[in-house]
Amino acid sequence: MTAFIKTLELEFAQHANPKIALEQKAYMRNQFEFYGLKATERREIQKPFFVKEYLPKKDELDNIMKSLWEKTQRDYQYFGQELAFKYVKQIKKKDIELFEYMATHKSWWDTVDFIAAKLMGDYFKKYPEQRDVSVKKWLLSNNIWLQRSALLFQLKYKENIDTVLLSATINSLLGSKEFFINKAIGWILREYSKTNAIWVMEFANKTALSSLSKKEALRLIG
Fold first, then answer.
1. Residue 55's pLDDT is what?
2. Ordered DSSP codes for 164-200
3. Do 147 and 138 form a contact (C-beta atoms < 8 A)?
């Protein structure tokens, strides 16, 4: 594990671009440091680390993720979440604890949205019995990133979205003043409108959505 991360550090540092790093930091409201790697460049650097025969063993993933999440540069968290996605076919029941850790540490939309839609979303497909328990816990947590995750884990479900759960989740968050919650409500509804525009329009018209949520929800509906 140490060699894997050390090699990654060397590769990232070698390709650092201080000018772009400052722009990236400003874009993220100065919350994180960056190496200045554009997404396409970073993913090119990552390719050898994601070759199947060189991937760490699945049982090392927790420690690797936490090591990457402790690092200063945001690039490591991007790498980490994309690394975790390589193991989605090997997801274990306890992995929800790791995904919650990732969502609640160094939290911002740029990682939480990936974790929710790609990692948590796949997790609940494999362990549907864990879904309602987790969503209830997240909604009661007062953590906006777990609440956002409760909305967005179904983002790519299309016709398989559970509208009863989605309705209950949105209704439990109505009245929130948090931009990232109201934006996520609109986003999940807008995404589902690609599959079922009538349901979204009816739901938006009968629900006391914030102006932001409603505008986003109906953006694709004529």
1. 94
2. HHHHHHHHHHTT---HHHHHHHHHHHHHHHTT-HHHH
3. yes
State both tokens at 70: 């402790």
Residue 82 tokens, joined: 């994309």
Bridge partners (DSSP) of residue 33 are: 73
What tokens appear for 214 in the block?
Answer: 């409603």
Q: Are 135 and 165 in contact (CB under 8 A)?
A: yes
pLDDT in tens, 199-210: 999 999 999 999
Residue 73, strand partner residues = 33
Give the integer Cα–Cα distance in Å for 109 and 104: 11
Cα-based torsion angle of the residue sequence 147, 151, 152, 156 in order, rounded to the nearest 10 degrees = 160
Between CA 217 and CA 222 the distance in angstroms is 12
Phi and psi torsions of 26, nearest 5°: -65, -40
Q: Would you state the structure tokens that stand for residue 115, as one six-digit string?
A: 């974790």
CA distance 102 to 111: 8
Q: What is the 3-state secondary structure (H, E, C) of 105-149?
A: CCCCHHHHHHHHHHHHHHHHHHCHHHHHHHHHHHHHCCCHHHHHH
Per-residue pLDDT tens over the stretch 166-175: 999 999 999 9
Handedness of CA 79, 58, 11, 73 (dihedral sign): positive
Rounded distance, CA 139 to CA 184, Å?
Answer: 14
Of 203, 178, 177, nearest to 188 (Cα)? 203
Q: Which segments of the chain have a pLDDT < 50?
A: none
Neighbours of 2 (CB within 10 A): 7
